[in-house]
C-alpha cells in the first residue's frame, strides 16, 4: 500500500502507540540486518489492530528498500501475547508456499527496543483497488489467491498457534449482542448459529486469512500482488474464509459478483463439500452484525447499497440454512 493511500471502506482508528524514535527504528533495523541503515520513516493508515509505519532503509550497496513495522495493539495482544512471533512464522510458511505475502524479517516481543511487540516485514509495492475496471477478472484473481491459500498444504502441526475457526466462532458468539446491532436480522442469525454450532468438519482444514476482503489485497498494473493483515488468521474449514469474502464482495460489488466469485473459487476447489456453506455464511453475517458501517465514510448512496446487500446476504443464509 502506498503511503499516501487513505482507506475508505473499513477504515477504523489505528491503535494508539508510543511514538518510535529514529534511534529505536535504527536499532530494529540492525537487529534484523546489521548492515541496514535507516533513511526515513512515516506512518501508514488503515490498520484495524496495529500501529503501522513504513521504513526506508539503505543496503550496503546503496540500494534502498521499504519495510513495514507493525506494532500490535491491546486487542491482538490480549487474544495472543505472542502474535508477533506467530505471524512471523505464518508469513514464513506462506512465502515458502509461494503466496503473495510480505517476507518477514524480525519479530520482537521483548519490548526492549519499542514499547510493544512488533513485526518488521517487507513492503509490498501495490495499492487497493476500490472500483475495478474489469470486475470478473478482479473476482477471479481474488478467488484464485484464496484457493491457492487453502490448497497450500500447510498442516495443523505447522501452525499450532492458530485458533480453530469453530472455537473462535463460539468465542465470538459469546461476545455478540444482537440488541446492540443496527441490523434487524442479527438476533435471528445468532440464534440459528447457536442452535447448530459447531458444524461437522467436512473439508480438509487449512490456514484461513480470517479477513480476506478487497481492502486487504494489493494490486499493481491490474494484477494481484499482495495479501496483507494476517493477524486474524485461523485454521479450519476453507468455507469460513470463502463466506467472509462472499459477503464483502456482495456488499461492495453486488450479489452477481458474489456468485461469480463463488463459482470461480469452487472451480479451483471442486473437491469441497459445500453443504455447510449457508452455516458459514451465517457466521460471516454474525461477524458483520458488529460492523458500524455508518462510520466508514461512505456516501449515502453507497452506504444504502452495502446495507441492502448485507441484509440480502443474511436473509438468504437464513433461508437456505437447514439444521
Low-confidence stretches: 1-16
Strand order of the main beta sheet, please? 1-2-3-5-4
What structural category arises from helix and sheet content?
A: alpha+beta
> Average pLDDT value?
90
**How far do the termini sit from each other?**
43 Å
Radius of gyration: 20 Å
Number of helices: 10
Looking at this structure, what is the CATH superfamily of the largest domain? Aminoglycoside phosphotransferase (APH), C-terminal lobe
What percentage of residues falls in helices of 4 or more residues?
40-55%
CATH topology description of the largest domain: Aminoglycoside 3'-phosphotransferase, Chain: A, domain 2
Query: What does the largest sheet look like?
Result: 5 strands, antiparallel
CATH architecture grouping of the largest domain: Alpha-Beta Complex
CATH class descriptor name of the largest domain: Alpha Beta
Q: What portion of the residues fall into strands of 2 or more residues? A: 15-25%
**Can you tell me the number of structural domains?**
2
* Topology as a string of helices (H) and strands (E): HEEEHHEEHHHEEEEHHHH
Q: Give the CA-based shape.
A: globular
Count of beta strands: 9
Describe the structure in your own words.
The protein has 323 residues and is α+β, with helices and mostly antiparallel strands. It has 2 domains: 22-122, Phosphorylase Kinase, domain 1 (2-Layer Sandwich), CATH 3.30.200; 135-320, Aminoglycoside phosphotransferase (APH), C-terminal lobe (Aminoglycoside 3'-phosphotransferase, Chain: A, domain 2, Alpha-Beta Complex). The chain is built from 10 helices and 9 strands. It has helices at 22-32, 74-79, 83-96, 135-150, 165-175, 186-196, 238-253, 255-268, 277-288, 300-320; strands at 37-44, 50-58, 64-72, 104-108, 118-122, 206-208, 217-220, 223-227, 234-236. The longest helix has 21 residues, at 300-320. It is globular, with a radius of gyration of 20 Å. The model is unreliable at 1-16 (pLDDT under 50).
Amino acid at each position: 500500500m502506498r503511503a499516501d493511500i487513505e482507506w475508505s471502506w473499513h477504515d477504523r482508528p489505528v491503535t494508539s502507540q508510543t511514538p518510535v524514535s529514529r534511534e529505536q527504528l535504527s536499532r530494529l533495523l540492525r537487529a534484523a540486518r546489521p548492515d541496514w541503515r535507516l533513511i526515513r520513516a512515516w506512518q501508514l493508515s488503515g490498520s484495524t489492530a496495529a500501529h503501522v509505519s513504513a521504513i526506508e532503509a539503505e543496503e550496503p550497496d546503496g540500494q534502498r528498500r521499504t519495510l513495514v513495522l507493525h506494532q500490535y495493539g491491546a486487542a491482538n495482544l490480549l487474544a495472543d501475547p505472542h502474535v508477533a512471533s506467530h505471524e512471523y512464522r505464518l508469513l514464513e510458511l506462506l512465502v515458502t508456499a509461494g503466496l503473495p505475502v510480505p517476507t518477514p524479517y524480525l519479530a520482537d516481543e521483548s519490548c526492549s527496543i519499542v514499547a510493544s511487540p512488533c513485526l518488521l516485514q517487507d513492503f509490498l509495492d501495490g495499492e487497493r483497488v476500490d472500483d475495478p475496471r474489469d470486475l470478473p477478472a478482479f473476482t477471479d484473481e481474488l478467488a484464485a489467491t484464496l484457493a491457492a491459500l487453502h490448497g497450500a498444504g500447510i498442516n495443523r502441526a505447522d501452525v499450532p498457534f492458530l485458533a480453530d475457526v469453530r472455537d473462535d466462532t463460539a468465542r465470538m458468539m459469546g461476545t455478540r449482542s444482537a440488541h446492540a446491532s443496527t441490523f434487524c436480522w442479527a438476533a435471528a442469525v445468532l440464534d440459528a448459529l447457536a442452535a447448530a454450532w459447531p458444524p461437522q468438519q467436512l473439508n480438509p482444514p487449512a490456514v484461513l486469512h480470517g479477513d480476506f476482503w478487497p481492502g486487504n489485497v494489493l494490486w499493481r498494473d491490474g494484477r494481484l500482488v499482495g495479501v496483507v493483515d494476517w493477524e486474524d488468521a485461523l485454521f479450519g474449514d476453507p468455507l469460513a474464509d470463502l463466506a467472509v469474502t462472499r459477503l464483502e464482495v456482495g456488499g461492495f460489488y453486488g450479489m452477481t459478483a458474489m456468485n461469480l466469485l463463488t463459482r470461480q473459487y469452487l472451480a479451483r476447489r471442486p473437491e469441497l463439500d459445500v453443504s455447510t456453506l449457508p452455516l458459514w455464511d451465517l457466521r460471516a453475517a454474525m461477524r458483520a452484525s458488529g460492523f458500524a458501517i455508518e462510520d466508514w465514510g461512505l456516501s449515502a448512496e453507497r452506504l444504502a447499497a452495502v446495507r441492502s446487500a448485507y441484509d440480502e446476504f443474511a436473509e438468504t443464509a437464513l433461508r437456505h440454512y437447514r439444521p
